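Quick illustration, no need to memorize.
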Amino acid sequence: KHIVTSIETLGRTHTIEDLLAKARHSANIGDGPHTVLYAHQAVCMAVASLGDDIAALRRDLTKRG
C-alpha cells in the first residue's frame, strides 16, 4: 500500500502553517485521523524544505570554493 505524502501529488498546495492550522482544528474537534494526517504532511513538507535549503547552501559554498 502506497501512502501519498507529497502535497503537490494531492493536487493542492498548502503552507506548513496551513497544515498545522488544519491539524489543530482537527484536534480541537476530536478528529484524530485528520490530526495525524495534517501534522504528518506538515512535518514532511518541513523536512523537504530543509533538504532544499541544505542543497542550496552546499551549491553556494561550492561556488565560493
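The CA atoms of residues 17 and 57 lie 24 Å apart.
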